[in-house]
Known about the structure:
- By secondary structure, the protein is of the alpha/beta class.
- It contains 9 helices and 10 strands.
- It is globular and about 65 Å long.
Amino acid sequence: MKRQDWVVVGLDNGGNKNNATVLDPARRFLVDRLIETPSRVKEGQQIAVDALVQAFDDVLQRTGVGKERVRAVGLATPGPASADGVISSRGSTNFAHPGWRGFDFRGALEARVHLPVVYNNDGNAAALYAHHVCYGAEGPRHSSISAIVGTGLGGGVIESGRIVKGAAGMAGELGHVHIPMEGLLAEGQPRPHCNCGFDGDAESVASLTGIEQNLLPYWLGRFPGHELAKAPSPARAAMLVRSYGEKRDPMARQVFEQQAMALGRLFTIAANFTDPSAYFVGGGVVETVPEFREWFLAKVREHTVLREEQQRVARFALVPDLDMAGARGAALAALESLPAN
């Protein structure tokens, strides 16, 4: 088959939904909108793999592409996981059930679709897509770092246009980098705990889980009578806090300023470790009204300490098309894994 006739498929597996896309060798996406199907990850590994196969078949049907044209599949899932797509033995915020620990997600999907499957965690995939959109053909001349705020805190490091995976495949797990808490926590605020077992890592503050378990319990105690205290559950209150932030609610802005400070401190570490060309922020925290989005990104930049030389060249931006970024980044990684001819 001639190169111009084949495609790759990108699949992004999430806690609730799978997203899929199709990419041709000219780097044109054949899907211009979000195509989601249930991920069913809470129902077990085999059912989740079945759901991914359904997403694969569905996107091919929607785009009118025959399976014989597919050369490879890119798979993105939440981490931590190995470079080969084996879920961490310590578990994951999104794959909390013990049955997921040590599960070979990539291999299981490959056995079902009978095609090469290229694995990346979803933070790496979104980071690759952000880098691609920002730099295009100049991508190999630049580096970037992305922080994706969701249920957990995903991330990705791109060096010379390529994902940095590391020896065990767990490079870019930015959520579990310890950050200084002095000056970030308010008076009497407990040191935040992360589901991974760490105290004081970035995810313990900058994530939806961090809001629910660590930030809101403290701030609701400082704002007696706040409407969010009446929410039916802590999880529901955490989901609603962004809408209050959009309305400039003082308590909600305190919560999100702490998150922005955490990301700024994380980026400060990155500035001294990888000195990237660009810093990208994505996730639900910035999928919001322009005023709040711009305020949050400005706060992240305010708390990122750069040297004068770095300030002149660094770029701060949002991850574009975030609801599609994981699938698109997964497809790009699959395309880059294939021979050029």
